[in-house]
Amino acid sequence: MKLAALFVLSLAPLGQAGSSDYFAPAHRVSGIGIARDDVSEELLAVRTDRMIQTQTFSIMREPLAVAGAHRITTTAKLQSLFRDAERQSGVPASVIEAIAYLESWGDPRAESPAGPKGIMQISGATARSMGLRVAIATRYRVSKDRVLVSAKGKKPRYKTIVHRTPYIVTLRDERLMPERAIPAAARYLAGMQQKFGGRDWAIFAYHCGQGCVNEMMELTRRSRGIPKDELTVPRMFFSNNPAWNRELYQAIQQQMQRDWSPTYYFRIRRAEELLALYRRDPAAFTALSQQYRSDFVNGVRAPHRLSVWLKRDDMVFRSDNDIRVDLGKRLVRALDRPDHFGYSLRIFPDAPANADYFAQASPSALGALTYIAYETRRLFDEMKTHEKFQPLPVTALVEPEDFARQKREGQSHASGQVFDIEYSGLPPAELEALRFVLNDLGWDGYLGFVEEGSDNLHIGCSPTSREFFASVFQEAVGKKVEETSSARN
Length: 489
What we know:
Blueprint: H1 2-10, H2 41-60, H3 65-74, H4 76-89, H5 93-104, H6 124-130, E1 134-150, E2 157-173, H7 178-196, H8 199-208, H9 210-222, H10 233-238, H11 246-259, H12 264-280, H13 282-291, H14 306-309, H15 320-324, E3 332-333, H16 338-341, E4 343-345, H17 355-358, E5 360-361, H18 363-383, E6 392-396, H19 401-404, E7 418-422, H20 428-443, E8 447-451, E9 456-461, H21 466-488
Parallel strand pairs: 4-6
Antiparallel strand pairs: 1-2, 3-5, 6-7, 7-9, 8-9
Helix pairs in contact: 1-2, 2-12, 3-5, 3-12, 4-5, 4-7, 5-12, 7-8, 8-9, 12-13, 18-20, 18-21
């Protein structure tokens, strides 16, 4: 992961973007935001690999990740079915078992509230197209009520009402039979691969449906900058932004909001790798799963990446005094030049005397903030709207633990590694650009973010990217010193 990160950074072009009055770092991540219009085949391979690796979180945070890997890789009957399905369909057994792993954790009786069932989580309609039999029958539950008809006279009269309540029973459901469902799913994938011309599109179709893939392929085919011989799911995913190929961008956003299906291919690829790891070294797999447990949420999956990256030992600023005595050590003061750096400080501490102290964070957090503002502004400028860019309002940096606990995600501010951006007043296009940049950096594993309340984003960079973002901050500090010196001369 680290080597991939360095490779991406080494490809970053130099030079200014936008007005010379704006801060433009020399250290950049290639292919982010507006720079997606120049994604080479080499860079696409790097971004695809990073996207695959970042899917580790979505898989390994699940409580059943270890048990599912054991079930998939060690159950003799399932392994025989996967191998037979490969021989019959030509689809690699590793792909088939990866789908079974993510869809059901290898449970033949798994049922989704949305309707799909079985180890391969097949819907009723898809089951019929696969040739699987799903036979149901209507039965009736009979009940009787004694109802008063008349109370006149010496003896009241009653009438018995018979109710027949229908209910459905399953006579046979081959989705729940692995010996039928696994080969049927493999044949389906082989058919989709032949129809769409690639295994990546076949995997995408398994989750999104054929109609969805037809639409996404056509939009990708019409998009700017995509070679006709490189019509792939990664090209689709990494060849759009709000400024260009907007139709493709909007279609991807719609699918992401529905069920995250545009990321399914990358998750399957990572599931293949993780199952291979379990086969080689179950202990290493289990140790990896422990890295994706949260120190703050027990017994359930980690709610977001920040809850995994930050540990209890990171929460070192427990009081106002801890922050006061740290200046120049772990914490540095934020650079407050909104027009130049693209963000503004709107921090309101518990006491006016703490205003300067609360305007601090780690160099990596401030570098991430500066970089996000830079990428957001240049994407927004490229969108060419009639709106005016507003510096991103930063409402929280470091905070003592007792003060931070008043907010849902507030405790992590006691680390100095996170910051909050309040977005309710941003122009719509700028907010769109901000969210796109956050997602783009997130897919590459550079940062994580979570909604806090109705109009606040809680953001932090990954431990492996802190050195990079700290270098961005040092560059910003150096340029500020140079500009101040030039102004004095």
